[in-house]
Recover the amino acids of this structure.
């Protein structure tokens, strides 16, 4: 059955959940969902969607006014005043880093390694190299999929412990159950998502979803 690009029925998302509606997001999400999309094209769609999502998620970045000299005159410009940290959840989140770095070239990148145990669907930490102290001002968690929400909750807990005051989540596709759980536990964290799908199956995969993002990005489907 084709993915339904129309708004989901049911209760409206919490205030902190932003399901970004845009025809180009729907277009590239359709390619992402398509089971015949190759790994190369899948990565390309991830990059495009990450760019569109990052544009939305960075609307409130703080800037200060500067001046810039054009070839013709001096005029006003801006520069960012906050340290921005991109926090990809390995592995799949890696594919969203470069497009967001293209938009925020000064951003720092801090990796968190989490995988979902196949039997329990609970997140397992295997890499965390955040520095002691000196947290970034704004952190953006990057992960193409938010299914049960367990991995994002683990990442948000780690970032809170690091001392980051402002955190956002950018996820290409989420389940209704997952975003509701994250929003309930971290109501202050805005979640930017291309589409919220209605359900999880018995294996806790998003349905209709797009399969396993990490395997499709890294071409490791066996
Ligand atoms: C997937 C996905 C998320 C997580 C979502 O990663 O990229 O990180 O599962 O599931 P959750 O919301 O139920 O926690 P996976 O564990 O497959 O690891 P991978 O990125 O290395 O493939």
């Amino acid at each position: 059955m084709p993915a339904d690009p129309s708004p989901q029925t049911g209760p409206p998302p919490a205030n902190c959940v932003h399901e970004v509606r845009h025809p180009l997001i729907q277009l590239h999400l359709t390619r992402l969902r398509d089971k015949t999309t190759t790994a190369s094209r899948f990565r390309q769609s991830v990059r495009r969607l990450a760019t569109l999502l990052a544009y939305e998620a960075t609307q409130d970045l703080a800037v200060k006014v500067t001046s810039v000299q054009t070839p013709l005159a001096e005029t006003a410009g801006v520069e960012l005043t906050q340290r921005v940290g991109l926090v990809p959840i390995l592995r799949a989140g890696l594919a969203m880093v470069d497009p967001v770095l293209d938009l925020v070239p000064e951003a720092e990148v801090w990796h968190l390694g989490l995988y979902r145990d196949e039997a329990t669907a609970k997140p397992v930490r295997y890499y965390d190299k955040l520095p002691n102290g000196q947290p970034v001002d704004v952190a953006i968690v990057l992960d193409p999929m938010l299914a049960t929400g367990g991995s994002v909750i683990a990442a948000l807990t780690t970032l809170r412990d690091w001392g980051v005051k402002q955190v956002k989540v950018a996820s290409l596709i989420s389940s209704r159950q997952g975003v509701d759980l994250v929003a309930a536990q971290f109501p202050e964290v805005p979640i930017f998502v291309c589409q919220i799908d209605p359900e999880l199956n018995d294996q806790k995969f998003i349905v209709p979803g797009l399969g396993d993002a990490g395997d499709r990005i890294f071409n490791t489907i066996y």
Observations:
- The domain at 17-218 is CATH 3.40.50.2020 (Rossmann fold).
- Residues 89-92, 114-116, 121, 123, 143-151, 178, 204, 212-214 surround PRP (CB under 6 Å).
